[in-house]
Amino acid sequence: MRPVTKREIVAHLERIGLEPSKALGQNFLTDGNIARKEAALAAEAGLRVAVEVGPGLGSLTVWLAEYFDEVVALEADRRLIPALGEVLAARGIDNVRIEHADALADPLPLERRPSALVANLPYHSGSQILVRLVEEAWFLERVVVMVQAEFADRIVAAAGTRACSALGVRLALSIDAHVAAKVPPVVFHPQPTVWSKLVVADRRSEPLAVTEPTTFDATVRAIRHGFERRRQMLRRALGDDELAALDAVGIDPMRRAESLALDEWVALGRAIATSKGAR
Ligand SMILES: C[S@@+](CC[C@H](N)C(=O)[O-])C[C@H]1O[C@@H](n2cnc3c(N)ncnc32)[C@H](O)[C@@H]1O
């Protein structure tokens, strides 16, 4: 596959007259080796369909087209879509479906079939996009995303450690993630100010996965409450129902949110949901 070069990206942007948008996190990947590695990591799971959020000018898309039978690419910026079509056509690629869609606001135009999510996510909205896709599109079984290094660290920090966060613990209910590579700003055009990291994750299976919606919502709410006051003891951070459930599962209310392991959050969420169901 012929990689998409920085020269090609700059030429397309000039021709369209497009100044990359900060709000849309338009930092285009100019390193074909990294793009190829991302596609290869995603393909390891043996899935046939890749979903890409924010294909931009195709740096990653061209490799996904090579490694997967089918690619569905959701791009929010309509102005990029004709140029993306040209990048693909110039390489004889015909297995990519480009959809003009905002992955945060629009209904997701995706079929419910086992797929991989692969994306170089926009910096500012990357966390919201990831949470939405992971939680709403349960058929995305493998996730390979490039995100800001600091966000990557939050995603992979295990519950019960000092570095963990509400967002990371929430995501950990659904996926099991690790960092596969650290990526410098120089491989993007325009260059961002911070480093990125490549995160690889697989969907969790039972018993840790919380698939029942009431339990899931109760768990997420308890995590949010716990971390809103992460320096305080749980007895000051959680609501009355949550504290009763904490007692029922035998977790000491003098502990702090950051000390709870993932299975403790899940047990707490289940107890809250059960007590609600009993009322
Ligand atoms: C970091 S760039 C990556 C572009 C390309 N994949 C690459 O690696 O060069 C992020 C891309 O996401 C698009 N984008 C931003 N917000 C989006 C959203 N909410 N839904 C879909 N695409 C979005 C941007 O227009 C841009 O193309």
UniProtKB/TrEMBL annotation:
Record has Nucleotide-binding as a keyword: no
Keywords from the UniProt entry: Cytoplasm, Methyltransferase, RNA-binding, rRNA processing, S-adenosyl-L-methionine, Transferase
Residues the entry annotates as binding S-adenosyl-L-methionine: N27, L29, G54, E75, D102, N120
Domain of life: Bacteria
SUPFAM superfamilies per the UniProt record, alphabetical: S-adenosyl-L-methionine-dependent methyltransferases
A GO CC annotation given for this chain: cytosol
Similarity comment text for this entry: Belongs to the class I-like SAM-binding methyltransferase superfamily. rRNA adenine N(6)-methyltransferase family.
Protein name: Ribosomal RNA adenine methylase transferase
Organism phylogeny: Bacteria, Bacillati, Actinomycetota, Acidimicrobiia, Acidimicrobiales
